[in-house]
Amino acid sequence: MFFREALLSRETTGRKIYFGISVFQNATNIAFGFGGHMVWSGICILTFYLGALNTILARVAGTCTQGDASRLWGVIFSTLFYLLASYALFRTRLFRTSVIACLPVLPKNDWQAWFSIRLLIEVLVFQSAARSVLEGMPFPEDGNETAFATLWPTMSLGVLFVMVLVYLARRRVQ
To answer: How many CB atoms lie within 10 A of CB 126?
Structure first.
């Protein structure tokens, strides 16, 4: 509003134009978080929640009533979301605010780690099919059990490990 008024005004004193531009810059700094740091916080929070949501959907939203295990490939997207969230958390100046905003998702990460370890043990130790672990009923193997049994624990335990690393790195900086 002030910016437009300063540009459209017939009075073209330097003071009025400068005032309009500075108000516009202050408004953009507030909107975009003082140099983009709020943007990193928003990216961190958004991608952390998207990674958690994708993990839940990969577990429970099957495409087949017989328990299709190919839905577990969603772990790749969750890993990308979590890596981007960790990078954004490292970059933001609003570290505490971002961590507090992500706290509601952390209990889901415990559930995710528990499922991942259970999948690893069931597939590699007891030679169960991934669909059997998902649905709780006996199914033939899908052929990708070893990939699922290694990707899921790597992602779920890796997220916890990377979050601790980011916390330790940020604690030293502050």
So the answer is: 9
